[in-house]
Amino acid sequence: xxxxxxxxxxxxxxxxxxxxxxxxxxxxxxxxxxxxxxxxxxxxxxxxxxxxxxxxxxxxxxxxxxxxxxxxxxxxxxxxxxxxxxxxxxxxxxxxxxxxxxxxxxxxxxxxxxxxxxxxxxxxxxxxxxxxxxxxxxxxxxxxxxxxxxxxxxxxxxxxxxxxxxxxxxxxxxxxxxxxxxxxxxxxxxxxxxxxxxxxxxxxxxxxxxxxxxxxxxxxxxxxxxxxxxxxxxxxxxxxxxxxxxxxxxxxxxxxxxxxxxxxxxxxxxxxxxxxxxxxxxxxxxxxxxxxxxxxxxxxxxxxxxxxxxxxxxxxxxxxxxxxxxxxxxxxxxxxxxxxxxxxxxxxxxxxxxxxxxxxxxxxxxxxxxxxxxxxxxxxxxxxxxxxxxxxxxxxxxxxxxxxxxxxxxxxxxxxxxxxxxxxxxxxxxxxxxxxxxxxxxxxxxxxxxxx
Length: 452
Fold this sequence. Notes:
Layout: H1 2-29, E1 34-49, E2 55-69, H2 91-119, E3 121-124, E4 128-131, H3 136-140, E5 146-151, E6 154-155, H4 159-167, E7 174-182, E8 187-194, H5 206-210, E9 212-214, E10 223-226, H6 231-235, E11 242-246, E12 249-250, H7 254-262, E13 269-275, E14 278-284, E15 287-290, E16 296-299, E17 302-304, E18 314-317, H8 321-348, H9 359-372, H10 374-392, H11 400-413, H12 419-450
Antiparallel strand pairs: 1-2, 3-18, 4-9, 5-6, 5-7, 7-8, 10-17, 11-12, 11-13, 13-14, 15-16
């Protein structure tokens, strides 16, 4: 819980601060007086002023922020400061100030992605483990033990890249073009025929729906660490024990153990183990906990001894500074396009609106990604920064994109829209964003607490 709280505060703090600083920095360069720079809403927790008279505030509700500029529309402005008011500036300068926030988010995403690429990593190749009979993949001829190298003409190096390429096709009909090669490098092209693929599905599962199961190494069921005062310790299990069977069912892989334990919370299980070449019987009663899907599952409090992937199954990703930056730009562009495509598919009904996530989901994923390490957390920050940039550019009044539409219209016609039209747009924008936030929170509650 503490990790999730800390990761969420870091996520919101970094992304919101950078977004608002984009507005602030450009406003100052345009000679506009900035009255307040606030991270969060509500009661100020901390505040101070800089030498330019800007009040910096950290407020109690960290779900956004704002930069308040000198503006005749929001209060009286002394005659000697009119030239520093936002509304008195040329329309191109006002466009630059408004656009600076989302642009700052894209720049931050590029930095994070470039840093991730620069750190380098070793990843597992996207090797097909099984192909479900009579599935879309099977009908196309895809076979097990092949390495997927391209999806729709785009090179892929791991399962994450494969999944992102497939997600872009959700809701569509036609063919997904895949190139897969044998482990010795012989390539074959496949066309996976789809028809309204995963249209309107909540939490779509691209691999499963195509009939593709990623290859997984067999993990011997040999225990490593035993959690103190856990079901495993109370049953007498020890590090090094090899599980042979559970309630009469033979065990050959650690995943079999996990499946049986999770399926029997609070139920006594007869476990046969091998300890120092001697067979022993142990009665284990798994503890109970609630999964992310809201289901009651069992757990025993023991980890398994790790195994290493053979080198031929791995690929090393190492990039120099320049290449990392270019890849960061490309990744930011790809994720921006994917976000826009997903929004459009939700509007047209190809993707279920139940996939919209709110602050609870963001907090959950932030905590999980921080627990996995620096690279996953930076990747998560970059993705959310891209999403924040794209969403703020949507042409909805209240958002930066809505203001940009007003100023672009003003630039084209030589005069601004009437104040009454702008106020009407503002009210509609507040209604739209408020409704969207309530719907996102409802989805979060449904997903994480109700499990429906």
